[in-house]
Amino acid sequence: MNGLDETRTEPSKKKIWGINRNLVTFSFFLFLSFIFWYLNALGKVVEAEITYPVNLTSLPKGQTVEAEHPLKLNFYLKGQGYSLFSLKVLKRKTPMDIDISSVNCVKVPGSRGADYYILTSGITRLLSQQLRSECDIISIKPDTLFFTMGKTAPAKGSPGTGSEPGEKGRK
Length: 171
Known about the structure:
Helix content is 26%, strand content 33%. By secondary structure, the chain is an alpha+beta fold.
């Protein structure tokens, strides 16, 4: 026919690992653009929720915390994306220590047992210091931390249990 049809060849479809090279190139640059977008988003001020376990310390001698579920606090934080990212991903979730002797621990009115509560609004500064982050605490959920204190069971052989030699019969 004419000379143009004979010189026209089909474009070679090079494959990498059995996949079209154009698809691999497109996927690579799509992933690269996602990385740049995410790094840009981390530079902005954002809000996030982070959950931390709670550890109550400085309990009265012979007392322990009795809880059906571990105590946890949900922090709603506002700050730079890099700071929140490091809190969420890079740092371990070490428990927040709340010193019972230094906070306003209130007995639940009308409770028969040793039921107490702490208002989290009163310990925001303490918890913020423990976060060691540039983020601001917007709110803490739950707003009230309920717990029950009970007596620790003395270990066998400890003084006052009546299990030491020579203690039988004494009261």
